[in-house]
Amino acid sequence: MSKFGELVDLKIPVLLDFYTEGNSASVSMNPVLRDVASALGNKAKVIKIDIDKNSQLAEALRVKALPTLMIYKSGEMKWRQSGEQDAPTLIGLLKEYI
What we know:
Layout: H1 2-8, E1 14-19, H2 24-28, H3 30-40, E2 45-50, H4 55-60, E3 68-73, E4 76-82, H5 87-95
């Protein structure tokens, strides 16, 4: 959990994508997340977290549906949503915290 704290305690917004390879909605988010990352460059960070490999973290954050997306800035959760999102929406949300 301490590594998680380091991941989200950045001065730039961090978009977390909780996913699993066996979930089709999670897989369909991959190109969207690539678009978000390339559009914002070093102004934001996009991190994918496989819940199969990080089950304790997913449980601690009460991740029930996939994909679950969260935005953190300076260690504080700013936004959370389950389900697929499009790139323009995510880019707009992240820009609010840049």
